[in-house]
Amino acid sequence: MSTLSNEAYPSFDAAQSPLSPGTTLLEASAGTGKTYTLTAIFLRLIATEGLEVRQILVSTFTEAATRELKDRIRLRLLGAREAFAEGNSDDSVLSALLQRHASDREACEERISRALRDLDEAQISTIHGFCQRALREFALESGQPFDAELCKDVSPLTLQVARDFLRTTLHAVSPTLCGILGPPKAAELQELLQLRLNKPTMVLQSETPPVALSEAMAS
Q: Cα(35)–Cα(40) distance, rounded to whole angstroms?
């Protein structure tokens, strides 16, 4: 079995790795500084890339993580503004940015100050919150009703779908075939439906080979 070399997965330098257009996937274990890296990227987009706060979307999983990110980003910007004003910092990322942008320190400081003033416009939210806002603000473009809501738990809906399917399907089925199928099992059908919703490309296969209907009825 071969293993991928380090060149295939280069380490990400929060201060110097390019933030070019496109998609960049960062993989990290717990406690390796993901939040620190996120705030560094946010800072670079503001200070050196010239983006406005409202142009950056930061999305995470929980409300607690969202609140922490907001606080950490504010603190990071405050520290960066002080560092660019004084021209030095003990932070490795800030130190590298100061060296690379020594000639336009004042411009960077001004961008950071503007970002701090506009931080209330920052789009820092949970994935659920972002999707809800997108549906509300772009209802016409997406063809969704204005009062559309996202369900955090769809299990009641999938169970209802499974029950409705069994009710409408078995209504016209002969008693003989119902006897072959056995009692309706909405919970099992719901489980299969949930698996398919979670992984649309997954192929569902039976553990036993299929039997022709005529053969099953004859037996």
A: 9
Element (H, E) at 70: helix 63-86
8 A C-beta contact, residue 123 and residue 54: yes
Query: CB-based contacts of 144: which residues, under 8 Å, 6+ apart?
Result: 135
Answer for the pair 126, 60: CB distance below 8 angstroms, yes or no.
yes
Burial of 93 (0-12, 13-18, 19+ CB in 10 A): buried
Q: Is pTM, for the whole model, over 0.70? A: no
Q: Angle 34-47/63-86 helices, nearest 10 degrees? A: 50
Q: What is the pLDDT of residues 147-195, one digit of tens each?
A: 777 677 888 888 899 888 888 887 777 777 777 666 778 888 888 888 8
Q: Report yes or no: 57 and 130 within 8 Å, Cβ to Cβ.
A: yes
- Whole-number Å distance between alpha carbons of 77 and 64: 20
CA contacts within 13 A on the Cβ side of 216 = 12
